[in-house]
Amino acid sequence: MRDYIETSGKGLRPALLLATCEAFGGNSENARVSAAVLELLHNAFLIHDDIEDQSDFRRGRECMHKRLGVPLAINTGDGMQSLALRLLRQNLGPLGPETGMRVVDEFDHLLQQSIEGQALELGWIRDNRLNVDASDYLRMCLKKTCWYSFIHPMRIGALIARPHDVASGALNLDDFNAFGFFLGAAFQIQDDVLNLVGSQDSYGKEIGGDIYEGKRTLMLGQLGLKAEEPEQARLAEMLSNPRDARSTQDVAWVLERMSHYGSIRYAQDAANDLLAAARNEFARVFAGTEDPPRAFLGQFMDYLVTRQV
Amino acid sequence: MRDYIETSGKGLRPALLLATCEAFGGNSENARVSAAVLELLHNAFLIHDDIEDQSDFRRGRECMHKRLGVPLAINTGDGMQSLALRLLRQNLGPLGPETGMRVVDEFDHLLQQSIEGQALELGWIRDNRLNVDASDYLRMCLKKTCWYSFIHPMRIGALIARPHDVASGALNLDDFNAFGFFLGAAFQIQDDVLNLVGSQDSYGKEIGGDIYEGKRTLMLGQLGLKAEEPEQARLAEMLSNPRDARSTQDVAWVLERMSHYGSIRYAQDAANDLLAAARNEFARVFAGTEDPPRAFLGQFMDYLVTRQV
């Protein structure tokens, strides 16, 4: 269970949770266990997602199921989920039953949404859907990524900072929802773009891996809708094959068609629009909060969507 | 998520939990949510186990991952685990925070032990261990099966029946541990024997499937230790192949050697000894409890270890 944790990534989610807690005047010590639960669940999701997506690489090395086999990797993810439950339970003492239980409810919603989002995406792949439009994609992205990676980290951080304001209604946690959605969608689209145009050394996953996996990104969705009839047939045919039957030629062809139809440009524009909306929301939601953590969150936002790796 | 629940098996675990609650004078209505959590987790385990063990059949039809594919099946099991967390949280209201939290702790231990047991068994298969003796097997069986299927159902049932006696120490939940271990091990060995000698129609799984899966049963362990050198080499060779490379001839040979070395007889004797020990413990632990549910539990115990299907 230490395997993914010890080679952990950027720690975006705990950083967002802890910084939001401090921005709202809280002591981030009180949020440490919740941040750990989040990172533990994130890594558990990654282990299972890597199997579900048939990924090969993660953080610059082979995925767990490639090294230990699928059976032990599934079980390891389950083990991390059960340790997360234990940490949540330990939280109830220090936070007090009322706030502790609200944190449990945040995690409950987070889990349900993430799993539903994953079910949507896997269902599209299984059904070989080629008419995934921007609205479908954004709904999936909200469910699969935004709640657990962006919205709930901020909600939980603010809740732990100001439990009485949340209980009285003076602080409405739903205020974070739109901001987290805009930022999360911008981040995810950027991440999907990097998967197509980045370099494996710095990105840590195989380039074009999403095309091998048949992942319904905004780019693939746009291509599926824009492409001419014979190209659509070729795309559908290629994506109906098992993953191993997709060749580097197939992937190169998809990339070339994406370039032809401006799919990547389209996605980058969408990410920029979402980022602009996120900046507006950030200014509104974090107005009047404490400055060193608030400034950190501003830089954090810029980093997320301008990073090249 | 309804898929395995709606074709659910015998409901042994909820039955044991609810009957124990009533035997100890409780109202089984109060235990209903906990019984549902248990059945939900059991079915979530089965979905993941069937993938991990590369099983083909469950309850007379193809396993979920054979029908929906591995990705959606992993995600479905995760979804059921997260719904179990939600039910546990709902439990805290009706049971009160103190008893509700004790129930959470019971489930925490149950999850940890089951996942460790699964890790042990999968590790033996991965490492192609052939020196799994009775002590190794029983330890794995305690962890993987007995805690969640036998010991914790009784502990939780009794806890909900008599929360004050548990809090004061008048009722010690550890009293169920030995009984649940003996009964659970007898049940598991019997289940493993049926996998080798049962009929697929009534058993619902493929006959000899455990040998295809390389499962370290008491019989395979005994054969590995008893077999002559060249037979050991053949066994090791066969079990080092991927599952699909094991032929019906291989499986028939293993069954024949088990018969030669008395492996199945040995396991049946062990199950009978464990059952005798379980009967003693049952009489001791349930002495003075209420009779209709107590009589039911006695019959339940007989059914478990004498059933042919």
Automatic annotation (TrEMBL), chains A, B:
* Signal sequence coordinates: none
Provide an example Pfam family for this protein: polyprenyl_synt
List GO BP terms, alphabetically: isoprenoid biosynthetic process
Q: Which family does it belong to?
A: Belongs to the FPP/GGPP synthase family.
What this protein needs as a cofactor is: Mg(2+)
Domain of life of the native organism: Bacteria
Task: Quote the PANTHER family the UniProt record gives.
Answer: GERANYLGERANYL PYROPHOSPHATE SYNTHASE, SHORT CHAIN ISOPRENYL DIPHOSPHATE SYNTHASE
Q: What is the lineage of its organism?
A: Bacteria, Pseudomonadati, Pseudomonadota, Alphaproteobacteria, Rhodobacterales
Q: Does the keyword Disulfide bond apply?
A: no
Entry protein name: Polyprenyl synthetase family protein
InterPro entries from the xrefs? Isoprenoid_synthase_dom_sf (IPR008949), Polyprenyl_synt (IPR000092), Polyprenyl_synt_CS (IPR033749)
Q: Check the record and name the PROSITE patterns matching this protein.
A: POLYPRENYL_SYNTHASE_1, POLYPRENYL_SYNTHASE_2
State whether keyword Transit peptide applies: no
Q: Could you cite one Gene Ontology molecular function of this protein?
A: metal ion binding
Keywords, sorted A to Z: Magnesium, Metal-binding, Transferase
